[in-house]
Design brief:
single chain, mainly alpha, two-stranded antiparallel ribbon, 14 helices, 2 strands, 71% helix
C-alpha cells in the first residue's frame, strides 16, 4: 500500500527531528567559550542544564495536546479522545526515571561520539525485555530472545570499535570513551524501568500519548530545574568539566551562552526537535504502524553516523559499521520485522502465527506513544 503525502511528511519529520535532537546536543558539547570567571575558554559541559532544555521540549507537548483538542472540538464530529481523568502524579515515578536516565546520557555524550551514543541506546530492548518478563509476566517469543542475544553481540562490537578508535582519537581520552559507553548502557537500565512503570501504572489509564509525554516533561523540567540549585554547590572534583568543579554550574553556562550565542541555537534545536520528534513518532504509530516507527528510529542512527562523519566529528571505523548492522538485526528480530518474510515460507508460517500473539503486547511496551528521551536522550 502506497504512502500518502501526509504519511511521508510524518516519516521525514520523525527521521529529521530525531537526528537533529542528538546532533544538536553533541554540537553544544563541542563549543568553547569564556565563563563567568576571568579565565581561558573552556568546553560547554553542562549536561544537567541540557536535560532541562530537553524536558522543556517534552513539556511543550502538553500545550500541543490542548491546542489539538481545542481545534478538534470545533469540528462537527470530534475525532480526538482526550482520555479519562487521571492523577497526574502517576507520571512522577517514570518522569524521575526519565530525568535520571537523560541526565546520565547527556553526561555520557560529553565523553563519546554521537553515533556510538545512539547505537548503544539499542541496549534498552535487552533490559526492557528482561524486566517485562520479571515484573509484567510477559512471555517472549524465541525470535525476541534471539534478538536480545544478537543485540548484546552488537553492543560488544560497538564497544570494541570505541576501544580501538579511542586509542587514535585526540578529542576523547580512551578512559572517557569507555566510561561514556558504560554510562549509556547503565542509563538504558533506568529507561527500561521507566517503560515498565509506564506499562504497569500509566497505560492502564486512557491517556493520550502527547498528554503523557507532556506531563512527564512537566515533572522532569520543574524537578531538575530546582535540583540545579543544590548542584551549584556540590563539589565533584575532576569529574566536572567546569571551572568551579561542581556538579552543575548553570550560571557559568549562561555566561558562556552570552559569549557564544550559537550555543543557544544548539540548545533550542534540542528543545524544538524533541517536541516535534515526539509528535511525529506518535503520529507515525497512529497513521502508519509501530514497526515503521521502529525502522525510522534505526535509520536515525544511520543519519547521525553519516552526518557526524561528514562534519568531521568522528572517524570512519569498519567495526562500527558491523556493530550497527548487528544491532539492526537484533532490533529487527525483537520487533518482529522477520515475520513478513518468513510468513511467505510455508514451513515457517505456523511459527510466525504463534509469535504474532505476543507481538501486540511487545509493541505497546516499547512503541505505544512513548519516544525515548534524550533522545537523549
Amino acid at each position: 500500500m502506497a504512502w500518502t503525502k501526509y504519511q511521508m511528511f510524518l516519516a521525514g519529520l520523525m527521521l529529521t527531528t530525531g537526528s537533529i535532537n542528538t546532533l544538536s546536543a553533541k554540537w553544544a558539547d563541542m563549543f568553547k567559550a569564556k565563563g563567568c570567571q576571568d579565565g581561558p575558554e573552556h568546553a560547554f559541559s553542562h549536561p544537567f542544564l541540557q536535560a532541562v532544555w530537553m524536558f522543556l521540549g517534552e513539556f511543550s507537548c502538553l500545550a500541543v495536546f490542548y491546542l489539538l483538542v481545542c481545534q478538534d472540538k470545533r469540528r462537527p464530529e470530534p475525532r480526538i479522545n482526550p482520555g479519562q481523568r487521571f492523577n497526574p502524579f502517576l507520571f512522577l515515578p517514570p518522569a524521575m526515571c526519565d530525568m535520571i536516565a537523560t541526565s546520565i546520557m547527556y553526561v555520557a555524550l560529553n565523553m563519546t561520539s554521537a553515533s556510538s551514543f545512539q547505537m548503544l541506546r539499542g541496549a534498552v530492548i535487552i533490559f526492557t525485555g528482561l524486566l517485562s518478563v520479571a515484573f509484567l509476566g510477559r512471555r517472549l517469543a524465541l525470535s525476541q530472545w534471539i534478538g536480545i542475544f544478537v543485540t548484546i553481540l552488537g553492543l560488544v562490537i560497538v564497544g570494541l570499535a570505541d576501544f580501538v578508535s579511542g586509542n587514535k582519537d585526540d578529542s576523547h581520552k580512551l578512559s572517557d570513551v569507555i566510561t561514556g559507553d558504560l554510562l549509556i548502557i547503565m542509563a538504558q537500565i533506568i529507561v527500561s524501568v521507566q517503560m515498565v512503570l509506564e506499562e504497569k501504572f500509566v497505560y492502564t489509564h486512557d491517556v493520550h500519548p502527547l498528554r503523557a509525554v507532556g506531563t512527564e516533561g512537566f515533572f522532569g523540567f520543574f524537578v531538575l530545574s530546582l535540583l540545579l540549585i543544590p548542584m551549584y554547590f556540590i563539589p565533584v572534583g575532576s569529574f566536572a568539566n567546569n571551572p568551579r568543579q561542581v556538579l552543575e554550574d548553570a550560571l557559568d553556562a549562561f555566561c558562556q551562552i552570552g559569549y557564544r550565542p550559537l550555543i543557544l541555537l544548539a540548545l533550542l534545536g534540542n528543545t524544538v526537535s524533541i517536541a516535534f520528534f515526539n509528535f511525529a513518532g506518535i503520529s507515525v504509530t497512529k497513521e502508519i504502524s509501530a514497526t515503521t516507527r521502529m525502522v525510522l528510529d534505526s535509520l536515525r542512527t544511520l543519519v547521525i553516523w553519516v552526518v557526524s562523519l561528514a562534519l568531521g566529528w568522528e572517524q570512519f571505523h569498519g567495526l562500527q559499521v558491523l556493530g550497527f548492522v548487528v544491532l539492526l538485526v537484533g532490533t529487527g528480530l525483537y520487533n518482529g520485522l522477520h515475520r513478513p518474510l518468513l510468513g511467505r515460507i510455508p514451513c515457517c508460517a505456523r511459527l510466525v502465527n504463534e509469535e504474532e500473539g505476543s507481538s501486540v503486547e511487545r509493541e505497546r511496551l516499547l512503541n505505544d506513544g512513548r519516544v525515548q528521551s534524550g533522545d537523549n536522550s
